[in-house]
Amino acid sequence: MSGEGGKSTVSARAAESSGHLSRRDVLSAELGSRIRFDEPLRLHTSFRIGGPADFFFVASNRADLAQVLRLFSSIGIPVFILGGGTNVLVADAGVRGAVVTLGRGFAKCEWVPRGRDEVELRAGAAVRISRVVAEAARRGLGGIEFAEGIPGTVGGAMVMNAGAFGGEMSSVVLAIEGMDFAGEEFFLERGELSFRYRRLLLPPCSLITAARFRLRREEPLALRRRLEEIRSRRRAAQPLCLPNAGSIFKNPPGQVAGKLIEDAGLKGLRVGAAEISRQHGNFIVNLGGARAADVATLIERARARVRERFGVELELEVKLVGEW
Q1: Which has the least CB within 10 A, 72, 164, 194, 243?
Q2: How many helices and strands in the chain, by DSSP H and E?
Q3: Region 42-58 average pLDDT
Q4: Which among 23, 198, 199, 278 is annotated as catalytic?
């Protein structure tokens, strides 16, 4: 964005308020070809499902992100932040408003030694979790190997407090960096972060731009063995070859959602081109061309059957996004 962006925003906003410019005109004038209209979100989700977003923008760096968030706010466009597109189910009708995702400027890692036995990692929110795990193992650093096989990005994993095999993001994070929708940056240390099961409580209307982790030095061979064990367990238990959004439901206290669904006789249940996985009851897979409505129907059927059979109310882990 040019240094004169503030002036053009004011004039564009004034013109819009007088009826001369639509929102699309304003955004085209400010952002040019970088703003996309009616972008199919199925291209940006691991489910390969989702209707169009009215506006879609890839922020290349912090300044870019701050200015576009201010612009959307100034003309009253709601914003949804999309990470790696995992753990979301986007409605067939799509998203009314703007979808913003983070680009290359948020996909960098910095490794800083902290004494003989520890290393601090600063990872941008757009860095893939798989990259963090692989690079840490290559450097002989442990603590985050539980995340092997977790899809998506650092930002998404932090928001979800993602975890598996006895570990979760809250156990290794030192701090997060973020930005609110007014374009103001913030920094929160570990003691200021409030984690819940599969959730991090963030300030309203804000997003994570980077996270800092404490990792410990370990024997590389032992790390590789642990990672291979985790990979083997995932391959055996999860439908990794078909588009999905990860776990659909949170585990109820003291129970396992996938086991409840399996015991309710629902594995293999199909609606349209969506199916409750025959391999893992807490996964719904896209067999090819599934609609969000198909998945939503399976979700409600699973909830109803588990409630009826076991008196347990399943809570969604996957986030429903868009116009339902």
Answers
A1: 194
A2: 8, 19
A3: 98
A4: 198
